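Researcher: Let's run the pair from yesterday's discussion. Sequence first, then tokens, for each.
Model: Starting with the first of the pair.
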Amino acid sequence: MTMATGKQGIIGLVYAAIAVGLMATLGMVSFGTRAVAAEQRVAVFPFELLDASQDDELIPKIRPEETQRLELLTNDLKTRLSANPTYTIANLDGVAADVKASAPLYKCNGCEGDLAKKAGADVAMLGLVQKFSDTLLSVSIEVVDASTGRVTGSYTAGVQGNTDDAWLHALRHIVKNKIVVEAVSIGTKTP
């Protein structure tokens, strides 16, 4: 996942946050393209946090509750995908050290495809929470074809509120209304 960084990137993120925030007041927002084909082995990488609200901090800190929420999102995504016969979750234990060394994956310039391939997966799913303020965030999932490195799906949902429920609501919206729906639309079946 390629994300803009630096002052210009942050300005763009602020504009995006305002747009997502406005749309989120009208309901959950998501954008996407076709993600996966039938019976895919998926490498679900740990969700990461890009906290634009701390850009002026010398040493940005991730709050312990946000670290727990990132783990919560990762585990919930795996659980929801596992419940669908379209997906098999790849074991990332064999690439854990590589994942850690490559972090953050949203800045690794395509390493997620190679890591997914090394884990025996067909596709990689990367999760990113972008925090614009304490109450305005977005949850994104990017799907990458492991063999080509091509992004095959990109989904974002706006979040108003910095709670477990708010973060999970955004993730569940993306999975239920985008990832699973698009899998069905290309000829697979869900339970």
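Model: Moving on to the second of the pair.
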Amino acid sequence: MSDCGFNNRFDKVSNFSDHSLIAQLEENIKAYLDHSFLCIGGYTNAVTGTLYNNNATSAQISTSIEPSGYRTKYWETTYKDWVHETGITYNSGSPISVSGITVNNIFLPSPTGSGSYGYSLDYPNGKITFDNPIPTTSKVSMEYSYKKCQVYKSSTCDWWGEFKNAIYSDLPNEYSINLPAIVIEPDIRNNMKPYQLGSRSFFYDQDMLIYIFANSAIERNNITDMIRSQKEITLNTYDINSVIADNAYPINFNGSVNNNGQSYLSLIQNYPGDDLFIKNVDIMALESYSKEIFWCILRLTTETIL
């Protein structure tokens, strides 16, 4: 007789490596926020030759890794989290799809370049890595769009623990994230109650904390109101385990676009997960750090039937 019979193993769990409820919530809330911000114009187009204040949205790509006269593989844009999503339209406009980069007036088509100028694109981190180092004096540019509000999962942010502790004291210079930004973090508050008689299904209430960081109180307040107005809506979700198994996730592990990846709307249609009900949204804190960083903490109480 097998030692893994029905009554001798975990219920509702089939694979040790699968993403469970909390991971599914974190993933789907991020995907929902990313998609929703883009649908209301939450992106900026950076076009070569366009002038911007302080080069804030310039398409010029720079490197600070090595001093002038050296060569490096690693280049980056001022703003990260490039828009990889397609099919987005707002006010008759759309985000720019990256068609390639220009190095010293030579156009190199994406996603891999050509010849001795091969490269890879890291969309979340806003970086280009060349196969071979090029002089730091090179002029590298690219037309692209970046997301106005960057959304992070706390589980994948190696900097989050130290950053969260530092906001109440002194923020070191190495904590340079583009603002506004959001970090999603699971909270310890949760609850389970039976769904119906004769069933092993439950209502799972799980609280998720939404940290909002901005350059101004107005920007922080606007994003806060956008999110808390989603109280009592039901979100369609996708099952991240099925998505990964089918190689349908839109971004590869190295930040490049997955040619087999699917859009957010396609994922929730083709790999449906459990519906996510936003039961309640509370403001826990409205703070500022030296009038330079303004932040808010929202508590989302989510409900899922499993």
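Researcher: Give me one sentence on the second I can quote.
Model: The CA atoms of residues 109 and 271 lie 32 Å apart.
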